[in-house]
């Protein structure tokens, strides 16, 4: 192997490592964090804070700070009634750092000693209980209870993109099971209590894959269009929902040979809807949606099982921010 080839391999390897390092590429050196407090606690300063945003209105003593990413604890200096105290916010590995798993962990080697690997929680609420301080992530304190990150009356828009779709669908030959990667779900979340909300959604899914499998000359395709309504519980960073769904399942079998006949079967049915969503950031969730169809309106017998299952990345954006 010539010296020039060795140099080229080194350049290619170094470039690949740099491209695979998600935290190095995606994270900025500074991170924005929000800190709010109850009336008995005031944030005096944050050590190593670069900027404190003093333009925002200080409702509930909330302020925005820009701090350097670091593996070190972040010291927050507080004024509590007549005494001064300090608390320390613990850093963690950022979402971008864990994203290196998508490149088989190669980028972790590059990000390992980089301060941009770390992150603090995006939002804190500090309250005084007896003589100690407690830190809550994405929650506030009301009547000495932990409450959801959204006040009663808040409305959020939800957008869900499946990364995997799984079907069990009725065909003219019995049940057909398939897997795909495409779909979409949108809806709104309405918070009617501090830890409960109603989610109304519409969506669609398919088992289309970039490379089709023809087999003996036929392609089987599963599709769904649905609407759902779910009641949801907020348990810290986990949202659990249950409800009902109205779905239209559509199965097609067709051939790449135009001389062969194609077949299709569609039906509208009523079933259940279950979801579990795990909060990654204030706006990003990872979720699972399971919708079993139990009652068929298009053919007999009226009772028949089908299902749609998807694994999703979910974004939630505020449409109406309620204040209590």
- What is the helix fraction of residues, given as a range? 10-25%
Strand order of the largest sheet: 13-15-16-17-18-19-20-21
User: What Rg is obtained from the alpha carbons, in whole angstroms?
Assistant: 26 Å
CATH class placement of the largest domain: Mainly Beta
Give the CATH architecture of the largest domain. Beta Barrel
What does this protein look like?
With 324 residues, the protein is mainly beta. The chain folds into two domains: 3-147, no CATH class; 155-320, Porin, CATH 2.40.160. The protein is 10% helix and 60% strand. The protein contains four helices and 21 strands. It has helices at residues 3-20, 22-26, 95-98, 106-111; strands at residues 30-37, 41-46, 49-53, 63-68, 74-80, 83-89, 92-93, 118-119, 123-129, 132-137, 140-142, 145-147, 155-171, 174-180, 182-193, 196-206, 218-235, 238-255, 263-279, 284-296, 303-320. The strands form five sheets. Strands 13-15-16-17-18-19-20-21 form an eight-stranded antiparallel beta barrel. Strands 3-4-1-9-10 form a five-stranded mixed sheet, with no helix packed on it. Strands 2-5-6 form a three-stranded antiparallel sheet, with no helix packed on it. A hairpin with a 4-residue loop joins β19 (263-279) and β20 (284-296). It is elongated and about 80 Å long. The protein starts with a helix and ends with a strand.
């Amino acid at each position: 192997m010539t010296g020039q080839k060795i140099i080229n391999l080194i350049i290619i390897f170094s470039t690949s490592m740099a491209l695979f390092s998600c935290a190095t590429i995606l994270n900025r050196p500074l991170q924005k964090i929000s800190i709010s407090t109850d009336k008995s606690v005031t944030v005096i300063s944050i050590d190593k804070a670069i900027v404190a945003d003093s333009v925002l209105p200080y409702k509930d003593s909330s302020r925005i700070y820009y701090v350097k990413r670091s593996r070190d604890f972040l010291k927050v200096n507080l004024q509590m009634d007549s005494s001064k105290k300090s608390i320390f916010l613990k850093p963690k590995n950022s979402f971008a750092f864990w994203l290196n798993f998508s490149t088989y962990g190669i980028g972790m080697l590059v990000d390992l000693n980089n301060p941009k690997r770390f992150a603090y929680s995006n939002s804190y609420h500090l309250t005084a209980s007896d003589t100690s301080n407690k830190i809550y992530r994405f929650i506030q304190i009301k009547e000495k209870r932990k409450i959801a990150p959204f006040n009663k009356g808040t409305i959020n828009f939800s957008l869900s993109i499946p990364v995997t779709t799984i079907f069990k669908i009725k065909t003219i030959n019995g049940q057909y099971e398939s897997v795909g990667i495409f779909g979409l779900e949108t809806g709104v979340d309405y918070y009617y209590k501090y830890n409960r909300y109603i989610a109304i959604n519409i969506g669609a899914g398919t088992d289309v894959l970039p490379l089709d499998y023809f087999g003996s000359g036929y392609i089987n395709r599963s599709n769904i269009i649905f609407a759902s309504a779910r009641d949801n519980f907020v348990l810290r960073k986990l949202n659990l929902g249950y409800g009902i769904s109205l779905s239209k399942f559509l199965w097609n079998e067709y051939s790449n040979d135009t001389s062969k006949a194609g077949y299709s079967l569609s039906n509208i049915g009523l079933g259940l809807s279950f979801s579990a969503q795990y909060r990654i950031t204030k706006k990003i969730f990872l979720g699972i949606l399971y919708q079993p169809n139990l009652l068929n309106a298009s053919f007999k017998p009226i009772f028949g099982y089908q299902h749609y299952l998807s694994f999703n990345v979910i974004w939630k954006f505020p449409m109406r921010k309620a204040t209590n």
